[in-house]
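G., the chain you wanted modeled:
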Amino acid sequence: MNVKLKPEKYLRYLVPINLFGTRRTREILNQNPTIIPIREDSKEVKITVYDYNATSLEFHELDDVNECFRYLSTQTVSWINIDGIRKADVEALCNFFLVHPLIQEDILSINQRPKMDDVDNILFCLLNMLYYNQEKKSVEQEQISIVLGKNFVLSFQEDASRDVFNSLREKLKLTNSRIRQGGADYLCYTMLDLIVDHYYIVMDHLGDQIEDLEEEVVRSSTHRSLAKINLFRKELIVLKRNISPVRDLVNGFIRSDSELLDDRSTKYFKDVYDHIVQANDLSETYRDMMINMHDLYLNNVNLKMNEVMKVMAIVTCLLAPATVIGGIFGMNFDTIPWLHNPYGFFGAVVVMLIIPIWMLWMFRKRGWF
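Predicted structure as tokens:
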């Protein structure tokens, strides 16, 4: 029988870099805002438009960004969503909708910190949607830019295959839904709310993994447990880095005096603010759990070492009397008591057994083990 072995499947566990995820560390820390990254144009671009009011809804999938220009002058609310970013499309659309060049640079940026800006009667926010990869056991992020103007919302996403807005699309199909009754600011709030709510789904996945890891550390701590702890601590860094700034982002909408935001919308943004504060606190809790778990691992290692040293010390103590007795009777003298006695050997063996048994009884009585 021919068996085809795949050594690369097992050799990767022998390499410390792969085991402890140093490549992931470079991905997390390799973010320098002073270096302008070069974004490659997406191969696939998907443009969708929802144009609606309280009584009507139009949905279109467009092939060219120039077809979106007619939605600037409509009295209805228009949501133009672009999945897949191309520099030419972003500049053409933003120039027509009078979006400031600085905002355009943020849209085209990579690994940008979540932020909110109010420029030339345009509200802009940039943040990351988070996903949990079950296979890689890692947190993945996708940058999304949202531009709020008068009666329109522009959203730019990097990935054309996934987002968190499916429930929003379903609500738009309902005539009596609250989003159909609201304006563009309510649409912007709903998008932010869905992104923040999805953070909890990612944290739930991480929480389940952390609970399993904690049980593994308590039962049997190994070097692989330490590797898992380090990997999860890195994922929590990604989580914290993306969640914490969103609090200031939402707070910017609450404090904004822009005419684009209705006074009634403020309470909705406050609800998102409460959610992001709770998410931030939960991420802090997870980080504290990982720190405590790391300490628990070190304590378990020290405890095992102490147990080993205690057993070795007890064995050494129990063998000490036999060593002393054997050494005395092994001395090279002509006259030694019981040396030529026919029962001397058996007497010495009995003494060698009695003394360790007495020592064990004393150790147990004093509670040394």
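The CA atoms of residues 171 and 177 lie 6 Å apart.

Shout if anything looks off.
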